[in-house]
Amino acid sequence: MSLIKQSSTIQQNKKIALNLCPVTYTLEKIGGYWKPFIIYHLVEGVKRYGELKRAIPAITEKVLIQHLKQMESDGLIIREAKAVVPPFVTYRLSVAGLKILPVIQAMAQWATDDMEQSTSDHLAAD
Amino acid sequence: MSLIKQSSTIQQNKKIALNLCPVTYTLEKIGGYWKPFIIYHLVEGVKRYGELKRAIPAITEKVLIQHLKQMESDGLIIREAKAVVPPFVTYRLSVAGLKILPVIQAMAQWATDDMEQSTSDHLAAD
DNA sequence: ACAAGTACTTACCCCAAAGTGTGTATCCAT
DNA sequence: ATGGATACACACTTTGGGGTAAGTACTTGT
């Protein structure tokens, strides 16, 4: 899955950051390009792979799978496959995935606030 | 400032994501590699450029400046320079920067919770 | 017999973020 | 006059995430 060079400075720094900073830890888990979208759609409930794909048309299959695998191994979502053919695979949020929803909600709230404020100008905080 | 190719698919997708998803908007602003560290140190109050540099030894000057410029133009922090020599430049959080602190706090909280949970095993959410 | 649907997998390319290294103007202390 | 401190700027390289495109195994529908 696209090998990573553990020796590279960037990986060393990532380790430093993960040790020192819990915020970086969280960013690692939800920071993928389309991960917020996936979470958003899984809030509605259990979804099949194909449903997610159709719900997010701009995402490519490779990246979708990639994100799903990462989020699964990160414990954010749960994959369940029925041993039938054609395959029947579903995804849903785990406990940790559910617990992160308020955080995401807070991020969204700040964003909408900030977008409104930006129409007027930023002023200094004394 | 490293020019960006507006035509690339990734930039197109970024625009799509920013329009559709406020979470992505927030991730854009705090998602930089060392931005959480910068914010963390500015919580203590006004800091000079050199103080920040010494507070985060692993960061290079280029990336530090880069992040500071971005965060300034994003309205998260405020730069103030005294017209003296040698230069005297300080950075501090703006209103928007202060408002995002609870969000960051929530992210940190989720992270520490999740790290604890990960020592035991993840179970499905019914 | 052939296409369509399912859930992936693999090889390859592109590019922007991060890292490396050097340069700059001015002042002060030694 | 030489070096250090200040706050950057600029050119260059690396790297890893994301995009493109094609293939796979197996079944059902026509």
TrEMBL record, chains A, B:
<dbReference type="InterPro" id="IPR002577">
    <property type="entry name" value="HTH_HxlR"/>
</dbReference>
<dbReference type="InterPro" id="IPR036390">
    <property type="entry name" value="WH_DNA-bd_sf"/>
</dbReference>
<keyword id="KW-0238">DNA-binding</keyword>
<keyword id="KW-0804">Transcription</keyword>
<dbReference type="Pfam" id="PF01638">
    <property type="entry name" value="HxlR"/>
</dbReference>
<keyword id="KW-0805">Transcription regulation</keyword>
<protein>
    <submittedName>
        <fullName>HxlR family transcriptional regulator</fullName>
    </submittedName>
</protein>
<feature type="domain" description="HTH hxlR-type">
    <location>
        <begin position="21"/>
        <end position="119"/>
    </location>
</feature>
<dbReference type="InterPro" id="IPR036388">
    <property type="entry name" value="WH-like_DNA-bd_sf"/>
</dbReference>
<dbReference type="GO" id="GO:0003677">
    <property type="term" value="F:DNA binding"/>
</dbReference>
